[in-house]
Amino acid sequence: MKTRNVRGPTDLAPKICGGIITILVGKAEKRKEFYVHEDLLRSCSPYFDAALGKDWKEAGTRTISLYCDDPEAFQIYTQWLYSGKVWSASRTHDARPLSELLRMADERNLLAKAYCLGDKFLDHLFKDCIIDAILECFKVKDENKKVYLFGKRQVDFIWANTTCNAPIRRLILEQYAYRGRVSWDYDIHCKEFLVDLLREMYQTRIHPGRKALDSDGNTCKYHHHAKDQPCNKRIEEQAD
Ligand SMILES: [Zn+2]
User: Fold this and answer.
1) Which of 37, 60, 180, 184 sits at a 20 to 30 Å CA gap from 5?
2) Domain count across the chain
3) Neighbours of ion ligand 1 (CB under 5 A)
4) Which PANTHER family match (predicted)?
């Protein structure tokens, strides 16, 4: 049985020093307060680094308000900041009954929101980890060996909250182009997504040998990092 190494290199350790920043997330009754180390926030996110810089009022109040964002998705972000893991899954990866898979729709919503939060915070390493979590989530099968990918709700959210060249859009377009079925309901989707999908379908016709999703084991094509930059998977292996 493979055991996980407990030692990690000091330069990859979370930066848990400096003051504590209060972050208020969500609207009215759903609002939650989070307390995060300033050094950790600023080292991971250019957005928070700028917000806590001397020119912004938040630097004086030590409080940041994110009233339009989702507290559950922000919790995923803070947990990731401190642990390097995306804590969104159920405990088992065995075949699931349908009721459990319906609950997993909540996980897919959460991961879609978490990705867009990472986009807003300009935390590209977090976004790459969310991509890997999404691909893991897609591998879960029900009793009939059926897998569940992103549906209308997640697609709509991502198309409304990311730019046209966001890597997560590529992942979803390939998902639909290679695994879509004639029986699926396409007229529920927004026009922008359908036009992008049409272009993707033409690409699959022009390049019939292209591999879908991570079937070739290469998830880096959906990551933000450049080809010559280290992947979060390799960073994790270094730490293990
Ligand atoms: Zn990568």
Assistant:
1) 37
2) 1
3) 220, 223, 231
4) BTB DOMAIN-CONTAINING PROTEIN, BTB DOMAIN-CONTAINING PROTEIN-RELATED
Give the Cα-Cα-Cα angle 88, 90, 94 (nearest 5 degrees): 135
Tokens at residue 27, please? 């609207």
Token digits of residue 169: 């859009």
pLDDT tens digit sequence for 138-161: 887 777 777 778 888 899 999 999
Strands 63-66 and 20-25: parallel
**76 CA → ligand 1 middle, Å:** 20
Residue 4 lies in a domain: no
DSSP for 137-192, written as a single string: HHT-BBTTS-B----HHHHHHHHHHS-TT-HHHHHHHHHHHHH--TTS--TTS-HH
Residue of 83, 102, 70, 3 whose CA lies nearest to 36: 83
Give the structural domain span for 203. Answer: 10-239
Q: How confident is the model at residue 56 (pLDDT cuts 50, 70, 90)?
A: confident
Q: Which CATH number belongs to the domain containing residue 71 in this structure?
A: 3.30.710.10
Q: How far is ligand 1, taken at its centre, from the CA of residue 197, in Å?
A: 24
